[in-house]
Amino acid sequence: QVQLVESGGGLVQPGGSLRLSCAASGFTFSTYAMKWHRQAPGKERELVAHISSAGRIMNYADSVKGRFTISRDNAKNTVYLQMNSLKPEDTAVYYCNALRMFPKVDYWGQGTQVTVSS
After folding, report:
1. Distance from the Cα of residue 11 to its chain's centroid
2. Model pLDDT, residue 102
């Protein structure tokens, strides 16, 4: 059974930090690219960060560049999102996503809420 379980969300003040984790099971984690997406109330889901299967290539949305860092530990089947200098506009539900292209397979977690507020 495939599972992606996010954790680490919560309430943080502007300028603070959080580290999200996504623990994967039920598939060969090391062969999948991993992504973090987020969806704020009333807005479409957006891609925040991407990391290749081996962890050598990372990409970020312009809105989080220089503040967020995606990483993965293939030995622990876990992907992380370190979020620093958080802003109120980072408030959203953050989703973990595993993607393999050939053949295309796409798994999603249930999401974790991040709220940035004073």
Report:
1. 17
2. 85
CA 103, chain centre distance (Å): 22
Taking only the tens place, the pLDDT of each residue in 13-44 is 999 999 999 999 999 999 999 999 999 999 99
Q: Give the strand pairing for 46-51 and 33-39.
A: antiparallel
Using CA atoms, how far apart are residues 70 and 105, in angstroms rounded to an integer?
A: 21
Mean pLDDT of 51-59: 97
Calpha distance 74→114 (Å, rounded): 25
Is-contact 111 57, C-beta < 8 A? no
Please state whether 111 falls in left (phi above 0), alpha (psi between -120 and 50) or beta: left
Give the SS3 label for residue 69: strand
Question: Which DSSP symbol is given to 60?
Answer: E
